[in-house]
Design brief:
This protein has helices spanning 38-60, 100-114, 116-120; strands at residues 4-10, 13-18, 23-27, 64-76, 84-96, 126-134. By secondary structure, it is α+β, with helices and mostly antiparallel strands. The protein has 2 domains: 1-36; 38-134, 2-Layer Sandwich (GMP Synthetase, Chain A, domain 3), CATH 3.30.300. Strands 1-2-3 form a 3-stranded antiparallel sheet, with no helix packed on it. The protein has a 3-stranded mixed sheet with strand order 4-5-6, with helices on one face. Helix 1 crosses helix 2 (100-114).
């Protein structure tokens, strides 16, 4: 079973601790903010979850993965509770030994079959992606 805890530090600053003891700082956005905005944690979680699976799939194809960056953006409703309506991920990949179709398939599998964070989102949240694939620099 997954477990985590969130500890209030002061004002609007919190420490989140995951089931393995790793921590992060979260806080309400503002002038004195020192942590990650809570809603951005969701974007980070979706991107990281997909990234983990993309790396696994690419490695299983025995491709030479050199770089993988995911830039994620989200559109939220204008009114409370400001739910995400759209999330878009842009994968920037540098690898040899893999083609565009294989990368597309890896990302699709990661997001739509294996990513538990994506699967936990409401079906009303549109999740889209795109990618660029570059050959490694010599």
């Amino acid at each position: 079973m997954a477990k985590a805890e969130v500890i209030w530090l002061n004002e609007q600053t919190y420490i989140g601790v995951d089931s393995t003891g790793h921590s992060l700082v979260a806080s309400k956005p503002g002038e004195d903010s020192i942590g990650v905005k809570p809603s951005d944690l969701l974007l980070i979680a979706v991107a990281t979850c997909a990234n983990v699976d993309v790396v696994e799939i690419i490695r299983k194809r025995r491709a030479d993965l050199r770089k993988l960056i995911v830039r994620v953006s989200g559109e939220q409703a204008a009114e409370a509770p400001w739910a995400f309506q759209k999330i878009h991920l842009r994968f920037e990949i540098e690898a040899a030994g893999i083609d565009e179709a294989q990368v597309e398939r890896a990302i699709d599998l990661a997001l739509n079959k294996y990513c538990s964070v994506r699967s936990s989102l409401s079906p009303d949240v549109a999740v889209t992606f795109e990618h660029t694939l570059n050959a490694p620099m010599a």
